[in-house]
Amino acid sequence: MTNWTPDLTGRDGPLYRIIADALADDIASATLPVGARLPTHRDLAFRLGVTVGTVTRAYAEAERRGLIGGEVGRGTFVQAPRPALPSPTSAAPLTGSYFTPGAPPVPPPGDGTVNMTTIRPAHALAGQALADTLTAIGASGQTAAFLGYGPHAGLPFHREAGAAWLQRQHRVNATAESVLLTTGAQNAMAVALAAVARPGDIVVTERLTNIGTKTLAANQGYHLEAVDIDEQGLTPEGFDSACRRLGPKALYLVPTIHNPTGVVMGADRRVEIAAIARRYGVIIIEDDVFGFMVPDARPIQTIAPDITLYVTSLSKSVSAGLRVGYVVAPPDLRPRVEAAIRALQYSAPSLTAEVASRWIQEGTADRIVAAQRAEDLARQHLARSILPPETVYGHPAAQHLWLVLPEPWRREDFATETRRRGVVVIGADAFAVGRTSAPHAVRVGLCMPGTRDETARGLRAIADSLQAPVSAMLSIV
């Protein structure tokens, strides 16, 4: 731990901000290098003659600016530069959510609430790399090529880089010709569905499914039908029955780290699902956005490439803000996918695709993924050390977990109780398709909080809520 004591002379403003400003200056001058461990809150408060609360607030302000980060059990460290979070005093409050009804509102920034509603990882390496890459693009003399309309399917170099990435990180059978660029995975799903279905057509999916898919189906007029799931996800019996009864145009599923339950479909089950789809002439839309976290999970696209539209993005692995997604399409469906891209967005933004493609080519993306995997595993380990093991479900590499509630808890009462304790989670009913009955469970996003300390605080509040049976019975009184 460093013996850092800031010089506070000649500075104006609130004391906590003066300390944060001094910290910023010492980092900028390399007095405090990246990786330096800062004094504890109590130690620095003693040196400066201020309260521990003032130092805590100063460190929080420095963390908001992207200067430092905390690690559970280790302390607070100077970190590589990353963009500052919105200031609680200047950011417009968020009063709602783009999610479907049933999802809780997103808490306003700075209110102290731990938001564990979404799965939005972010790593400091990406922020540092972005500045360098944008500078390199500016100096390349090629900027004009990224400011006009690009080809509907994407520029050739970007499609080549996408194919290389998907082969390397997702183990997909992809070529530059088979890869079409989209604006993130949500747009990739919209494009894939538009290529094979029309409003009113039936699309089958897991009875608990991605909220974004529900929103998309409601917006575009597709009729979602639920199929039973078990500990491996979609059941072959349920899928076969749905195909015989309903004649669906497509199957949408997340076989690797299912959202929301976090389970992974076994290899034999994938072969069986592909065979059923082929038997009934159903196109598979495989969402593999989490596939990079499970290297031994073989995508269904490699089993049945001629009937599968494979969709993924860099949002969970590299950067959500780049909004770079990919669709891998078989030859006979490529014209329809490209036509859907043209209708829905004309083309993906070439500038962010160029950033992503350079990162893929230079190995930057692989380094970010390695760091993200390590963070995901660490947060899962943290969760499983805090929460009762019998309540935690899902793959241990997932960026979220499925919390199955013990008696007498009901999902809506539990979400209310955790909100009272300063943590926001999503109840299972938000993921239920149609009138499907939802289990008494909640999804907990482990990578939404900015630090492991914040994640641990949220998990401890969830664990405390589980031990509050009186609150669980309030709705019955």
TrEMBL record:
One of the Pfam families matching this protein, by short name: Aminotran_1_2
Keywords assigned: Aminotransferase, DNA-binding, Pyridoxal phosphate, Transcription, Transcription regulation, Transferase
Domain of life: Bacteria
PROSITE patterns assigned to the protein according to its UniProt record, in alphabetical order: HTH_GNTR
InterPro entries: Aminotransferase_I/II_large, HTH_trans_reg/aminotransferase, PyrdxlP-dep_Trfase, PyrdxlP-dep_Trfase_major, PyrdxlP-dep_Trfase_small, Tscrpt_reg_HTH_GntR, WH-like_DNA-bd_sf, WH_DNA-bd_sf
GO molecular function, one term: pyridoxal phosphate binding
Domain HTH gntR-type: 13-81
Transmembrane portions of the chain: none
Family named by the database record: In the C-terminal section; belongs to the class-I pyridoxal-phosphate-dependent aminotransferase family.
Protein name, per record: PLP-dependent aminotransferase family protein
Protein's organism: Azospirillum griseum
